[in-house]
Known about the structure:
This protein has 90 residues and is mostly helical. The radius of gyration is 12 Å and the shape is globular. The mean pLDDT is 84. It contains five helices and no strands.
Amino acid sequence: MVLDADPVPRLSSRELDVLHWMAQGRSNASIARELQLSHETVDTYVRRLFGKLHVSDRTSAVVKGVTRGLVIASEPRIEAAIFDREPETD
């Protein structure tokens, strides 16, 4: 078994929120509505996630996020409590 040697990336609270909704199968447009952001802003967060996670697609981003413990399949407020951070509300 080969382990991924990449260090766990440091993601912002908003990037973690976007990754959570990606893990729920949401589109960028749906994430934008959920987080009350523009579609372009969500596109930017997704591109940043791809770069920080060293991936080129959504599925790989979610898989890496889950395997690295960055996201779990749950409500964002539960994730925030687990990871001891405040959920974004803006």
